[in-house]
Amino acid sequence: MVGGVEGLEKNGNEVKMGNGRTAKLYELLLRLLALALTLVAAILVGVDKQTETVPVVLVDSLPPLNVPVTAKWHYLSAFVYLMVANIIACSYAALSMLLTFTSRGENIILGSMILILDTLMVALLFSGTGAAIAIGLIGYHGNSHVRWQRVCNVFGKFCGQVAASIVVSVIGAVAFILLVVFSALRLHKKSK
Amino acid sequence: MASTDKPTDPEHGKEIPPPKPEVPAAAPPAVNCFVLDVALRVLLFAAALTAVIIMVTGEQTKLIPLLGNRKAKFNHSPAFIYFVVALSVAGLYSLITILASTSVILKPFFSKKFLVYFAYTDVLILGLVASATGSAGGVAYVGLKGNKHVGWIKVCSTYDTYCQHIAGSLAVSLFASVVLVFLIWLSIFSLHRRPSAPPL
Q1: From A5, A163, B32, B178, which residue has the greatest number of CB atoms within 10 Å?
Q2: What does the pLDDT look like over B118-133, one tens digit per residue?
């Protein structure tokens, strides 16, 4: 690994890309996009709360009792994980944007660190959305085999908001994928 | 950096011939990197296969009062079906890339192009495996702990060996995603190194 880093350092000075500035601009825009998307996804989950009155029949002869039931985002650990993953990705996107913006020229160690962390963010965001989708599906359809009732017929707005957050978070994860692909492409071009 | 890097990998010794004499002096690190690549891909294949097998064989029938014999199987939950499909795709993908990587070791002509393609597809497969692990993990967690807010009862107290199978499968697939992360780093760091090698 160390040898590889030195190899580029030696070479980075000789091989100067003509469109280096444009590439950096695209990367910054992509990071800004990832930052915005993960922020929106985290906020969508974080403010998600719905209170519904559910009629409960205690005795058949009496009229049904209206009980208020609340659904909050922190009741299901998968949604907590989704929000934490989005917050981590969001703060990392802000930090990496700041570092990319302030660094002048080719900083190899910083570039490698950012690349490593980008890959980790892809994994983190995808596992978070995967968990939330799986739990959301059980919420929509229930699971008759283990007798888990569906809840989205009662909490429609809550489920819709989580679904929106999942969609936004998947797009954010794709932005991080593009960032990794982008740096591989740049290295490929540079080495030509 | 290892200077004496004849491919002495014990488990792939049969498929890797000694490096060619016409390869220039600076090339051995690149060859070595592909040997590591093949080793990691074999590991990925083994992990994906193990995870699928453990998940599919996890099946338990229990006598539940009032309900009779109830069976727990992986295809009762869409998350576990997705997990099996995703890990199978990852296993198939790793099999194909083992062949591709081995062909690069035999003919180092294409190596740079292959490295870039590997970096792209590896990231996609990482997304696939991570989301599969996440979804199966999310469902398994509810199965283990239950959720009293939405009235989902815990099922792992009933189906104990079934849940052990799922837990083992999840651990192996987590390992597979770690291997994939290492593969991506390896591809990209060998692209870093590429410029110092002579033009191929």
Answers
A1: B32
A2: 888 899 999 999 999 9
- Predicted structure pTM score: 0.79
Kindly provide the residue ranges of all beta strands, DSSP E only, lying in chain B, ordered along the sequence: 60-64, 68-72
B10, pLDDT greater than 50: no
pLDDT tens-digit readout, B159-193: 888 899 999 999 999 999 999 999 988 888 887 76
Which helix H or strand E contains B118, and what residues bound it? helix B111-145
Please spell the DSSP secondary structure of B134-198, one letter per residue: HHHHHHHHHHHH-BTTTTBPP-TTTSHHHHHHHHHHHHHHHHHHHHHHHHHHHHHHHHHHGGGSP
Q: Residue length, chain A?
A: 192
Residues of B in contact with A1 (CB under 8 A): 189
Among A6, A138, A155, the residue to mutate for chain B (most B Cβ within 10 A): A138
CB contacts < 8 A, A to B, total 165
| Whole-Å CA distances, A83 to A120, A124, B141 | 16, 11, 17
How many CA within 13 A on the CB side of residue A151? 25
Q: Between B120, B130, B196, which is nearest A127 by CB?
A: B130
At residue A92, the pLDDT reads 94
B71 Cβ contact list (under 8 Å, min separation 6): B59, B60, B61
To which residue do tokens 């002096």 refer?
B25
C-alpha distance from B112 to closest chain A C-alpha (Å): 8
Q: How close A158 comes to chain B (CA, Å)?
A: 13
Chain B residues 143-162 with a CB less than 8 Å from chain A: 143, 145, 147, 149-153, 155
Residues B120 and A180: their CA atoms lie apart, in Å, by 8
Answer whether A188 sits within 8 Å of B139, measured CB to CB. no
